[in-house]
Design a protein that fits this description.
single chain; 103 residues; mainly alpha; 2 domains; two-stranded antiparallel sheet; 4 helices; 2 strands; 46% helix; 8% strand; flat
């Protein structure tokens, strides 16, 4: 029972830290990027997590599929997704990506 209580307390503490990550923490970055001061900042991907700002890696094509006749939902389901799905990235939880709590 003590292990469960500790896990619940740890999870509760983590949730309290996550609650600090409000839109007000993101707004300064958004305002900066929309300002004249950011004139030389273009084509970059940023993430904000509480008091941390991250420069993210760029999205680049990984795999492609094509159909000369175009796509419809059925052909996407039957052709595109099966061809691309073996290259899907695993879904990670934030705690799997960040091994430290928000600052």
């Amino acid at each position: 029972m003590g292990l469960y209580r500790l896990k619940d307390e740890t999870q509760a503490a983590r949730i309290e830290k996550l609650k600090q990550m409000t839109p007000g923490k993101i707004a300064p970055m958004a305002v900066y990027l929309a300002s004249d001061a950011a004139t030389n900042v273009t084509g970059q991907i940023f993430a904000v997590r509480n008091n941390e700002i991250f420069l993210m890696s760029q999205s680049r094509p990984l795999r492609s599929v094509q159909r000369s006749e175009g796509w419809d939902p059925e052909s996407i389901s039957g052709h595109a997704i099966p061809a691309l799905s073996k290259h899907f990235f695993p879904l990670d939880r934030s705690q799997d990506v960040f091994d430290w709590d928000p600052v």
